Amino acid sequence: MASYAHLIPTADFALIGLAVMGQNLILNAADHGFTVVAYNRTVSKVDLFLQNEAKGKSIIGVHSIPELIANLKKPRRIMLLVKAGFAVDAFINQLLPYLDQGDIIIDGGNSHFPDSNRRYAELKEKGILFVGSGVSGGEEGARYGPSLMPGGHEDAWPHLKNIFQSIAAKSDGEPCCDWVGPAGAGHYVKMVHNGIEYGDMQLICEAYDIMKRVAKFTDKEIGNVFAKWNTGVLDSFLIEITRDILLYDDVDGTPLVEKIMDTAGQKGTGKWTAINALDLGMPVTLIGEAVFSRCLSAIKTERVKASTLLTGPPIPDGIVTPENKDQFVDDLEQALYASKIISYTQGFMLIREAAKEYGWKLNNPAIALMWRGGCIIRSVFLAEITKAFRETPDLENLLFNQFFKSAIEKAQAGWRKTLVLGIQYGIPTPAFSTALAFYDGYRSARLPANLLQAQRDYFGAHTFKVLPEAASDNLPLGEDIHINWTGRGGNISASTYIA
């Protein structure tokens, strides 16, 4: 076995995993004056990287874990950018025999937060500081400034802060990176980020579909609408790339987007968000609909068959005319803006509930700031979310902030008119629709769940509680009440449980 005792540790941190994201993050760090150790399981990738992109930079290529360790200054900082799941645990197990107490392992992959909770606890027992960090921004973000969302063992943060905040994207001079919270909080926030990304993308697709099918706009016309929207309240990365996609022609001069199969893929983070929302009992409906919309898109063969058998309303020409075109586009913009606000509102409601459920103290203003630049959901209105949480750190709901309350009120008329168009002409708008349904439900002091509880008690003796103003001797306040609705049932109620 090779000895590396002669090596003088000079590297600031190591990165394992030389796919595009890993390589670009290393190059980014080297550009900011850090010395980085690069390692990959297939070591030939290390040599190729050193001979090409990394040539002449402060990057040390190594061929083994012992060599990696020998080059690192203490406390050793080692970042993993490998496939989530088994590969992360495998590398951690390879590293452990060579680490000392106080060394730091950072998982920068798309790991599920329960795995990060487990790794945090296991490594804490061994004296190793674990950090699970969301990394967003794709290839370009990794190279020139990603959004970084670190959480885990707080003792690690002073040793990572300078590196992470140096290489992160900047928004108004502030780094899009700060400490999120303990255990798996960093990966939790990245999961919610990805869920919101699912919602944003679905909303944009529904706006595109309405313009294409109802207004009969060409792809170029739709691209120009997105270009205009990108100069206003909807200014964001996803609006920007949608503009570019719609204006992009194939070699034959026709829009490339029209040649792409309408079946969406997914890697699971949106599903994780929706499942966690159900587990915590939070109405994160828009992300759920976005996930289901991808599932519906995937059953293409069945949809094609259904299109020949099932009827809907015809969509005549002339619904949108030169005279009402501007109003139609403005209404659609307001529908998209309001629905986007609801998506972020639901996301932060979920984060709030997770903090309670898992005993985390989360940094909400920092989370909004992290998403302002570098990441996929970056948008101009995230500055207002940051501002809202800085002004009121314990803000219960974004809709209670005056900026967002006013924005929703202003958008309502166009939002509702857009949905009427979709319903009238049979255009599916699951994300737009659920956003408005949530808003109308959330602002309702009373919902029809009183009838639902009566039904549950009628067929299953599941009990109900009575309204304070309706309490009486036979309907006592605060108690679980069961009624013998038919005169034939008993007086024994079912056990109360949450499934």
TrEMBL record:
Residues that hold substrate according to the record: 110, 136-138, 193-194, 198, 267, 294, 456, 462
Top-rank taxon, per record: Eukaryota
Annotated pathway: Carbohydrate degradation; pentose phosphate pathway; D-ribulose 5-phosphate from D-glucose 6-phosphate (oxidative stage): step 3/3
Annotated EC: 1.1.1.44
Keyword Coiled coil appears in the UniProt entry: no
Signal sequence, start to end: none
PROSITE patterns: 6PGD
Active-site residues annotated for this sequence: 190, 197
An annotated GO BP: D-gluconate metabolic process
Binding-site list for NADP(+): 17-22, 40-42, 82-84, 110
InterPro entries listed in its UniProt record: 6-PGluconate_DH-like_C_sf (IPR008927), 6PGD_dom2 (IPR013328), 6PGDH_C (IPR006114), 6PGDH_Gnd/GntZ (IPR006113), 6PGDH_NADP-bd (IPR006115), 6PGdom_BS (IPR006184), NAD(P)-bd_dom_sf (IPR036291), Pgluconate_DH (IPR006183)
Keywords: Gluconate utilization, NADP, Oxidoreductase, Pentose shunt
Catalysed conversion reaction: 6-phospho-D-gluconate + NADP(+) = D-ribulose 5-phosphate + CO2 + NADPH
Residues covered by the 6-phosphogluconate dehydrogenase C-terminal domain: 186-486
Molecular functions per Gene Ontology: NADP binding; phosphogluconate dehydrogenase (decarboxylating) activity
Pfam families attached to this UniProt entry: 6PGD, NAD_binding_2
PANTHER family linked to this entry: 6-PHOSPHOGLUCONATE DEHYDROGENASE
Quaternary context: Homodimer.
Task of the protein: Catalyzes the oxidative decarboxylation of 6-phosphogluconate to ribulose 5-phosphate and CO(2), with concomitant reduction of NADP to NADPH.
Family, per entry: Belongs to the 6-phosphogluconate dehydrogenase family.
Protein name from the UniProt record: 6-phosphogluconate dehydrogenase, decarboxylating
Species, as recorded: Ascoidea rubescens DSM 1968
Organism classification: Eukaryota, Fungi, Dikarya, Ascomycota, Saccharomycotina
